[in-house]
Structure prediction request, 309 residues.
Amino acid sequence: MTSPMPLLRALALFVAVPLLAATACAPIDEEPPSTGEPADTESTSSTPSASASESPAADPCTTEELALEKPGRLTVGTDSPAYEPWFSDNDPTNGKGYESAVAYAVAEELGFSEDQVDWVRVPFNSSYAPGAKKFDFDINQISITPARAEVVDFSAGYYEAAQAVIALDDSPAADATSVEELTSLRLGAQTGTTSLTAIRDGIAPEQDPLVFEDTNAAKQALTNGQLDAFLVDLPTAFYITAVEIPKATIIGQFQPSAGEQEEFGMLFEKGSELVPCVDEALAALEESGELADIEQEWLSDVVDVPELE
Prediction:
């Protein structure tokens, strides 16, 4: 009987040879040549990165992306009556008058045609009250003040304003040459305006100023002899004395706060996403010179007026 040992050795040799061959053919990981820098261990996969695969964010100032009161339409507020030279013929929709022209120029910059602009009546005193608004922005000689900016938002200033004092030609007030000389006079202004604040804080008259619902009421009081003088912004004063009350004169102009220029701004609901877009539009109009052209067309009569010190 043959011993099983030679057969087992033969089988073991038969299995070992292929295993050795397989081991000899396996690839060997080689260390890359040294470059003096750490080897890049990150994958070089061609899969696009997350930033490359994301679509770019939409521009919030494109016409389609604007946050509006009514989709596809720009709603602009102002008071009624709408006074010259800011508006013409008490009709803000005609594009005439400084503020009407500025509003339509801004609308065009934002991508709206004239027939896509809607106007709504907003009483001056309610425009800067807290709360929701029924307009995208309001344009109505509204001065930018810290107190108002606490509850509403403003655009960048589109006009630098000064206060003007109007008196009848034959009034003793017409001879005043300084703010101090105004303190003994009967003064008045429209309620809620910076003109009224200028009387109280800038002039500090001896008697309380008369307060009127609107400028028309103040003009009537002046012609009736109930007032010695009243205050409005300078361009409005020019129109009043040139057209509405020819027997009145502008005593002078002044800035209520020394070193601070009063500016008119467009007014928005607090937190409006439209503000930066309107600011961009105003910046473009200023850079192109169109804003200056509009001012020259509608406010060119505003020439040098004596400063009341």
